[in-house]
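Journal club prep, notes for RB
We'll compare a predicted complex against what the paper describes. Inputs for the zinc ion case:
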Amino acid sequence: MQFELRLGQQYLPITEEAEVTFLLRLLRDSQKQAAEFPIDIRQVLDRSGSMSEPADGGLTKIEALKAAVKQSLELLRQGKDRLCIVVFDDEMQVILDPTVVSDINAIKRLIGGIDTGNTTHLSSPLRYAIDVGPMKDALPKIIIFTDGLVNTPSEDLEEKACYDLARQANKMGTPLAIFGTGTAYNERFLKRMAELAGRGSYFEHVKQVGAMRLRLEDDLENLKSVQDRDVRVIIQAEPPAEILEAFKYVPQQQNLPVSGKAVQDEFPGLDIRGQAYLIKTKVRTGNAVGDFKVAVITVNWQSPAGNVSKTFDVAVNFTSDENLLSPIDKTVRNTVLNTAAVEATLAGQFPRAQTLFETSGNQDMAEKVKTLGNGDEDKKRTLRTATVTDANKGITGKKGGK
Amino acid sequence: MAGEVECKACMTKNKPGAILCENCGDPLEVQVGTGVAMAVSPTPVAAASGIQGRACVLVQGGSKVADKEFERRMGRLYLKATGSAKTLIRPAGKTDWQEVKKDEEVELAITARFRFGGSEGYVIFEVV
Ligand SMILES: [Zn+2]
């Protein structure tokens, strides 16, 4: 693993109180290969009645989903990766028990037989996918796809049951990738599930079901590129400093809670996208001069060679020499602006989001806010997913597939 | 107070280092440049096998590379000032940067910090 630390400003004027913002990036070691861990994919797919409605390309939603899943299977490595598929309406049906893939065509035939049914009941199939349990040394992932409101037996009971399961997934270290399509599903509920499951879990709105092929392929490519696993990052403010805000960016921008003087994050594997953290601190310097330690960063992970732990300081310098003062680092500033723009987008403050994206030079996102922000609910959901996923692409590594 | 940044929108005076106005959230008009990228524990300098070899450190968002040679002899670490970028080192506990002349070699403490200067900016990293 490689680290890059970028300070908003290295040299600041001597002052009573300052703001210090820094960007920490974790990157794969460019000189090492991926570790080739087995992948353990468990798919939980919606086949409720509404999945028979038309999707893109003249297909129904269920047909488009089945085609996407079948195509993505080509990326699984025979004799190495494990797959399990369960579908649900008001009842669940196991299509494929956890199986190390060997005959992909046979699995495709099983998927071909999936048909639509009744209402939406997610907790039982999700419980099944969690109870499947771990596969030795594998990187697990549960993929959930739905187009509906979980309403059987009731929305309240289902939501509560699913939140409990998401917490269980967190304990077991099994991240969830949750996809919703259309506007009938409850976005707040699916987002919350991803938050509770943590460890790189995420929710995404899918505008076109056919696009699921790329999304599933991206996920598989990312998992295949993992070098180091069980990564744990602790950013601890030094006493005169206080962490005001903390964000992470892979798989999506996420506001991290600050507990006491520290921020902590865990994720299952460092893949080709790397990881990035933006930390904003307030430092009571009391007119100190010279080097000033703001925070200590500790990163633990498991490399193929064993457990590794690295600790390093974040320090700035206060100086009276005006010639030494640094300008604000462009990458840090743009990340701050993009991050605030994403938050504004999520809060529905589209004009502010557009201004912030424009100031950071992110024309692509500014344009998206302008066109999608004024659109219908489907477009607004598309916009929210696009901003949290793509607004800060520049500070993460290459995205697999896309 | 020195280094305060006034917000053009609401006139609030912000602390040095601020990027967004703490009052209204608008972007502050600040001088922007390429700052410091610290490759913390860069490979291969701090490779598990010991600190040895050539340090390739990315400068300016990965577009430029500063090459410096490191060699470990008899348990000591040496830096040779090769490449085009100016080489500055700051011994542990000192506050001043000292230039290492081209092709000169210096012994480094394991905790030394050093800085590679050049027209494109510079890189600081610590050997850990
Ligand atoms: Zn203001």
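Talking point for the session: Chain A has three domains: 2-33+226-328, 39-224, 331-395.
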